[in-house]
Specification:
The structure holds 2 protein chains of 2 kinds. Chain A has helices spanning 3-11, 22-51, 59-62, 77-101, 105-135, 202-211, 233-243, 261-294, 296-300, 304-329, and strands at residues 140-143, 148-157, 160-165, 216-222, 228-230, 244-248. By secondary structure, chain A is an alpha+beta fold. In chain A, strands 1, 2, 3, 4, 5 and 6 form a 6-stranded antiparallel sheet that branches. The N and C termini of chain A lie far apart (61 Å). By secondary structure, chain B is mostly helical. In chain B, strands 1-2 form a two-stranded antiparallel ribbon. In chain B, strand 3 (51-52) and strand 4 form a beta hairpin. The chains are: A alpha+beta, B mainly alpha.
Chain lengths: 330, 126
C-alpha cells in the first residue's frame, strides 16, 4: 500500500477511532458540553439555596396538585408520573435502536412513534405544572425586604393541632371603595402604564386578618423540626402591619407566593430549558420518524441515525432525573 | 450489522438472554428506584433526618439513588457499556471532574454567604 492510499484511509474520514462513527462521537461530545451547561444551572440553584438555606421553600408544599383532583393534597405524585413517562419513552427509544440493529423497519416505526407520544405527554405535563405554579394557591404577603408571609390556622386532626393553610381570598375583607385604580397609557399624559394591580390591597388583608381571630402568619424561616415557623397571633398582626407591603398570588419572575423569588426564577429557567430540550427532541424524533417511514435508512443500509437521536433523547431523560432530584426531592 | 452487547448487569449478577430483555430489566430496576425515592420523599422517615456531612441522611440517599439511575441510563440505554474504554473515560471522567469542581466551588461560596447574613452585620430580615 502506498503512503497516499494509507493517508487517504486514515485522514479521509474512513477511519473510526474509538470504534465509534464520527456522528456518534460528536453526539457524545455535544452531550458532555450540554451536561456541563445543565450542571452550571443546577449548581447555581444549589448556590442560591445554600445562601438562603434556612428560608428556602419546601417543594412538597409547592407542588401539591394533580390534574382533575381538586383540593387533594398530592405532593410529588404528578412529577413521579412525569418521570415515569420520560423513562418509558427512553425505553421505547432504545427498543427502536435495537430494532434498527436488526433492520426491522416496522418495529422501528412503532417504537419511534411511541417515543414521540411519550415526549408530547411529558411536555404537556410540564406546561400544566407551570400553569399551576404561575396561578398560585393561597396567596401571600410580601414584606419590604422581599420575604414572604403566608397565612393559616390550627385545626384539630386526630386529637393533634395541625397547621393548615388558609387562602387570603377566604378571609380578606374587600373594601367597598377602592382608592387606587390601575393606570393605563390612555389615561396618562405620557404613554406609560403599569402592571396589573394586586387582587387585594394591604388594607383589605389587614382588615381580614383582624376580623378572623384564628388566622396566623407563617414566615419563611425553617425551624428545628424542618417546618416553617408560625408566629403568635400578636406577632402575626404586628408583622403584617409593620412590614407587609404587597399581596402576591402565584409566581412569576418578580414575586413568588411560595417563598424566595429565586426559587421561581430557577424553576422557570431550569425546567424551561429542559422542556425546550424535550421539545426539540420531539421535533428531531418526528423528522427521524418520517425518514424511517420513507425508508431512507432502509436504503442507506443502516439505522445509525436512530441511534444518534436516541443518544440525545436518553440524555434529556438523564437530565430530568437530576432536575427531579434537586427540585422536588432534596 | 453485528452489534455486540454486553448483557450482564450488577457485575454479572444478572445476565439477560437478549438486548431487548436487558432493556426491560433495566426499566424495572429504574422504576423500583423511582418508587423508593417518591415513597421516601412522602414518608420522610424520622430516622433519616439526622445530619451527615452537613446534609440530611435522606438527601444523601436521594443523591446516591439519582446517580445509580444515571449510571444505568448511560450504561444500558445509551450503550456506554459497549463503547471502548477510551471513549467512556473521555466522556464520563471529563464531565464528572468538571461538575464536582463546579459544585464544590458554588456550594462552598453559597454556604459562606449564608454565614455572613447569619452571623455578620448584614441584615435582610425585615
Amino acid at each position: 500500500m502506498s503512503t497516499a492510499v494509507a493517508e487517504g484511509k486514515t485522514w479521509g474520514g474512513g477511519n473510526q477511532p474509538l470504534k465509534a462513527s464520527y456522528g456518534k462521537m460528536m453526539m457524545w461530545f455535544f452531550i458532555v458540553s450540554d451536561a456541563l451547561t445543565f450542571s452550571g444551572f443546577l449548581a447555581a440553584y444549589g448556590f442560591s439555596r445554600f445562601k438562603f438555606i434556612d428560608a428556602w421553600p419546601i417543594a412538597d408544599e409547592v407542588f401539591t396538585h394533580f390534574p382533575f383532583l381538586h383540593g387533594v393534597d398530592a405532593p410529588m405524585y404528578y412529577v413521579a408520573f412525569m418521570t415515569f413517562v420520560l423513562i418509558m419513552s427512553s425505553v421505547t427509544m432504545v427498543l427502536a435502536v435495537d430494532a434498527g440493529h436488526h433492520m426491522n423497519k416496522a418495529k422501528v416505526t412503532i417504537y419511534m412513534f411511541l417515543t414521540i407520544i411519550g415526549g408530547l405527554i411529558f411536555v404537556g405535563s410540564q406546561a400544566w405544572e407551570w400553569g399551576t405554579f404561575i396561578k398560585g394557591d393561597y396567596g401571600a404577603v410580601q414584606t419590604k425586604g422581599g420575604n414572604i408571609l403566608q397565612f393559616g390556622h390550627y385545626v384539630d386532626k386526630d386529637g393533634e393541632q395541625v397547621f393548615k393553610r388558609v387562602a387570603v381570598r377566604d378571609f380578606a375583607v374587600a373594601a367597598a371603595h377602592q382608592d387606587r385604580t390601575q393606570h393605563e397609557s390612555r389615561k396618562g399624559i405620557w404613554f406609560v402604564d403599569e402592571g396589573a394591580l394586586p387582587a387585594y390591597t394591604m388594607d383589605e388583608v389587614i382588615h381580614g386578618l383582624q376580623a378572623n381571630k384564628d388566622v396566623l402568619v407563617r414566615t419563611q424561616i425553617i425551624n428545628e423540626e424542618g417546618e416553617k415557623t408560625v408566629l403568635s397571633r400578636e406577632e402575626s398582626i404586628n408583622q403584617i402591619m409593620k412590614n407587609g407591603r404587597l399581596y402576591v398570588e402565584g409566581a412569576n419572575l418578580h414575586v413568588n407566593e411560595y417563598g424566595s423569588p429565586l426559587f421561581a426564577d430557577f424553576f422557570f429557567f431550569i425546567t424551561g430549558f429542559h422542556g425546550f430540550h424535550v421539545f426539540s427532541g420531539v421535533i428531531i424524533n418526528i423528522i427521524i420518524f418520517f425518514n424511517v417511514v420513507l425508508g431512507t435508512y432502509e436504503r442507506r443500509g443502516s439505522y445509525e441515525m436512530v441511534e444518534k437521536v436516541g443518544l440525545y433523547w436518553h440524555f434529556v431523560d438523564l437530565v430530568w432525573v437530576f432536575v427531579f432530584t434537586f427540585f422536588y426531592l432534596v | 450489522m453485528a452489534h455486540e452487547h454486553k448483557l450482564e448487569i450488577f457485575q454479572g449478577l444478572l445476565k439477560f438472554k437478549s438486548n431487548t430483555q436487558k432493556i426491560w430489566g433495566v426499566l424495572i430496576f429504574l422504576t423500583i428506584v423511582t418508587i423508593i425515592e417518591v415513597a421516601l420523599g412522602i414518608v420522610k422517615p424520622e430516622a433519616l433526618m439526622a445530619k451527615f456531612l452537613g446534609m440530611k441522611l435522606l438527601n444523601w440517599i436521594f443523591i446516591i439513588l439519582t446517580i445509580v439511575k444515571a449510571y444505568y441510563i448511560t450504561w444500558d440505554f445509551m450503550h456506554m457499556r459497549d463503547e471502548t474504554k477510551a471513549l467512556r473515560r473521555m466522556v464520563v471522567w471529563t464531565a464528572i471532574f468538571l461538575i464536582l469542581y463546579l459544585i464544590f466551588i458554588l456550594l462552598q461560596e453559597g454556604g459562606y454567604v449564608f454565614d455572613v447574613y447569619d452571623n455578620g452585620f448584614i441584615k435582610r430580615d425585615f
